[in-house]
Amino acid sequence: MRSDSAAKIRNLDLFADMQDDAFDMLVDGSFLQRFPQGVTLIRESDPADFLYVVVDGLVEMYAGTGARETTLDIVAPVGVFILAAVLNDEICLQSARTLEPSNILMIPAARIHQAMQIDAAFARATVIELAAGYRQTIKDLKDQKLRTSAERLANWLLRTEIEQGSQGSVEIRVEKRILASRLGMTPENLSRAFSALKAYGVEARGSRVSILDPAALTGFAKPNMLIDTPERKTALHGN
Asked: Nearest-CA neighbor of 110 among 33, 46, 25, 167?
């Protein structure tokens, strides 16, 4: 593994406080592989043989039943997925596929279990990671159940604009149908939501969305700190 990739992984909250020997044990038994766009990494009902770390790229977490399919999450660098399934030695409840060429680190589940036993900092970080994931799931449910399609899109734009550097615009990195699914709407509803937001200074041209009147958009969206504040994991670095 290249040193810059190892540094990205080492700085992830889940691994930041581990002892060096325990971290080396994890990565020495792992596989860093580059996947092209559109590759299915795991499927629902697969055994959780690896913990996956997105080093570079973008991964869609999705699920389906019958003819229906929905996007549950989009994992960006540096992020992990199926941690709960790995810890419980259970089957995967989600599928995952790359949305763009991606470098993925696959850590064998047995190594994760071993690290939990020998490194208290990693065990603590794992608990906090799972707690943060649970809280984010609750926020996502509140977002979908308490807001209209236009309100969900407006708040997503405001959050993403901050994440992308507060430049007054948002670059949509995924297909709009995937964004629509992630926000709990159809592509047609997403198009109508963008049209509704024009009155609040939102101008969409392809994948680039300009926010021309942030105050008006914020007034419409009414951000709620109990929904829109990103989960923090400051307790990870305590003694």
From this structure: 25
The structure tokens listed for 90 are 């259970």
Q: How do the pLDDT tens digits run along the chain, 239 residues long?
A: 677 777 888 888 899 999 999 999 998 889 999 999 999 999 999 999 999 999 999 999 999 999 999 999 999 998 999 999 999 999 999 999 999 999 999 999 999 999 999 999 999 999 999 999 999 999 999 999 999 999 999 999 999 999 999 999 999 999 999 999 999 999 999 999 999 999 999 999 999 999 999 999 999 999 999 999 988 755 444 43
Output the CA angle 87-123-110, nearest 5 degrees: 40
Q: How many CB atoms lie within 10 A of CB 193?
A: 21
3-state secondary structure of 146: helix
Q: Taking the mean position of all CA atoms in its chain, how far away is CA 149?
A: 20
What's the whole-model pTM score? 0.89
Q: Which amino acid appears at position 165 of this protein?
A: G
Q: Which two tokens stand for residue 181?
A: 């699914």
Coil, strand or helix: which one is 15? coil
| Separation of CA 26 from chain center | 22
The 10 Å Cβ neighbour count of residue 111 is 19
Other C-beta atoms closer than 10 Å to the C-beta of 130 total 13
Q: How far is CA 33 from the centre of its chain?
A: 19
